[in-house]
Structures are given as structure tokens and as C-alpha cells.
């Protein structure tokens, strides 16, 4: 079975044809999209991707979109968020279905972080586990809480809408401590130097100092914030993706210290293809 997939990020749109037997991306192509793109121009890019894929009549479509978004309805809710404002209130499902060259099968939408988590669960670092929490660490903290192949948005150990950025640590939302901007701000306040995270990580690898201290604080805070969710959700594995996960050699020890519980820690196995496979898996569910 093949599934047509569209995955939308902050500045890109990827179209892919995915098979799930076994899970693999057969082909994919990426287009640049501006965050301030018009609704019509956005649909033009989507349709260019659809024509390039040409999956045929009856093919299911899985479409991964960042939030805020009404996923059951396929309608954007991008109000005052600084991206895709032209899609606020726009019925993407109806516009997409009406312009496809062939009559589609089901068209389903899901959160982009959930698509990443489902992909890692289906054929990645969380494969073989029943319950997994997958985090993307970068501009913010994206998250997916996966139970038996389903992305959960509520229930024990699941923050509101399954989104870890709602978690409060130290009296503020988690992203005020664990995010690219938070790490850069913490280093700037202590040194007066405005460095990016990868530069701070390079300094931390040289030995003890401000850079190492800043990163240790952020990653231990992440562990402490996630610890009760790992416990209550019953997560067997915690998967890390996103740009900051590239510093796993600096993350693991303080994160484990903060978690203070036994859970498998892994770096995402295929962060590029995981969202595509995850969207396909979601579209293939009965």
C-alpha cells in the first residue's frame, strides 16, 4: 500500500510517496514556502507537489501541518502566531480535494510533531516499544505521546493537546528554559557573548565552564519537567529529535539526572523521513 504525503514545516513543504510494507519513502521532493505566503500561493505549491506525486485515484493522503490547526476539519487557525496567517480560517482540505487531478481517498491531517513521533515509532528509534514520548528540541519543544501507534492528545501523563510547551517548570513554560532562544539568552546574560547553540555546545565540549553549565542546567530542567509525564504516561523510551538533539553527548547525563527514572533514551533514527512515514501511518489507520 502506498500513501501520498504532504509535510509542511516553518519554511518548507515536502511531497512524498510512502509505502508501509515495509515502511519506506519511495520518493520525495521539497519546496520552499514563506511563512507569509498567501493562501492561493500555498495551494499552488501543494498542488504542484500533488501533480509531481501523481498517486492516482483513490490514494489516501496524509498531511502534516504545524499548529495551531483544526486537524479533524482541515482548517488553519494561524491567528497572531507570525506564520501562515493567510491560512487562518482557510479550508485546506476542501481546496485541496477540489483541485486534485484524480479523486482522492481519505485526506487526513495531523500535527507535524505527531507525524515525527509516529514515524520514529513505526520505523525508527521508538520501534518495538508500546509507549513512547518523542521530543523535537530546537526553536521550541515539540512533542508526541505515542501509545500503540496512536498519537495521544489527552489522558494520564499527557499535557494539554499532547504539547510539551504547555508544561510549566520553575514557574514558567518549559520553553523559557529549554529552547534555542532560552539557551542563547542564558549564555548571553552570563558572558555578554551572543552565540548560537552549536557554538555554545562546541565550547562545552572543551571542558567545564559557563557553556557547559548553561547546557547542563537546560537539559536537567528538561528532565525534571518531563519526569512526571514519563512516569504517568508509562513511557518506555524517550526519543530526541530537532537541531539541539545533535548535542546528545552533552544532553544525556544531565537529562538522565533530571528524569531520575529508568527510561530508554535515544536520538531520532531518521529525522528527515520520520514525519513522512508518520503521516502515512496515520492516514492508513482504519
TrEMBL record:
Xref: InterPro entries? ATPase_NBD, ROK
UniProt xrefs under Pfam families: ROK
PANTHER family, sorted:
N-ACETYLMANNOSAMINE KINASE (PTHR18964:SF169), ROK (REPRESSOR, ORF, KINASE) FAMILY (PTHR18964)
The text of the family note is: Belongs to the ROK (NagC/XylR) family.
Name it. Answer: ROK family protein
Species in which this protein is naturally found? Kineosporia babensis
Q: Source taxonomy lineage?
A: Bacteria, Bacillati, Actinomycetota, Actinomycetes, Kineosporiales
Amino acid at each position: 500500500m502506498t500513501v501520498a504525503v504532504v509535510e509542511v514545516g516553518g519554511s518548507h513543504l515536502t511531497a512524498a510517496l510512502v509505502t508501509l510494507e515495509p515502511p519506506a519513502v519511495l520518493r520525495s521532493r521539497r519546496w520552499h514556502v514563506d511563512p507569509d505566503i498567501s493562501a492561493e500561493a500555498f495551494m499552488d505549491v501543494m498542488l504542484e507537489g500533488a501533480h509531481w506525486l501523481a498517486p492516482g485515484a483513490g490514494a489516501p493522503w496524509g498531511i502534516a501541518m504545524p499548529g495551531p490547526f483544526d486537524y479533524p476539519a482541515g482548517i488553519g487557525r494561524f491567528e497572531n502566531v507570525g506564520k501562515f496567517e493567510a491560512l487562518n480560517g482557510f479550508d485546506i482540505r476542501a481546496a485541496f480535494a477540489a483541485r486534485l487531478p484524480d479523486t482522492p481517498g481519505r485526506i487526513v491531517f495531523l500535527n507535524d510533531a505527531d507525524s515525527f513521533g509516529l514515524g520514529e515509532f513505526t520505523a525508527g528509534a521508538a520501534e518495538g516499544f508500546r509507549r513512547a514520548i518523542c521530543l523535537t528540541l530546537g526553536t521550541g519543544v515539540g512533542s508526541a505521546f505515542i501509545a500503540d501507534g496512536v498519537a495521544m492528545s489527552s489522558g494520564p501523563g499527557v499535557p494539554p493537546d499532547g504539547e510539551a510547551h504547555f508544561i510549566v517548570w520553575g514557574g514558567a513554560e518549559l520553553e523559557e528554559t529549554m529552547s534555542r532562544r532560552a539557551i542563547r539568552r542564558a549564555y548571553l546574560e552570563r558572558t555578554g557573548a551572543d552565540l548560537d547553540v552549536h557554538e555554545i555546545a562546541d565550547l562545552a565540549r572543551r571542558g567545564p565552564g559557563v557553556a557547559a553549565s548553561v547546557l547542563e542546567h537546560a537539559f536537567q530542567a528538561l528532565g525534571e519537567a518531563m519526569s512526571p509525564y514519563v512516569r504517568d504516561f508509562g513511557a518506555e523510551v524517550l526519543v530526541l529529535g530537532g537541531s539541539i538533539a545533535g548535542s546528545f553527548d552533552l544532553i544525556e547525563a544531565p537529562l538522565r539526572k533530571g528524569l531520575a527514572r529508568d527510561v530508554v533514551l535515544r536520538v531520532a533514527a531518521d529525522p528527515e523521513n520520520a514525519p513522512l512515514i508518520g503521516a502515512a501511518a496515520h492516514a492508513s489507520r482504519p
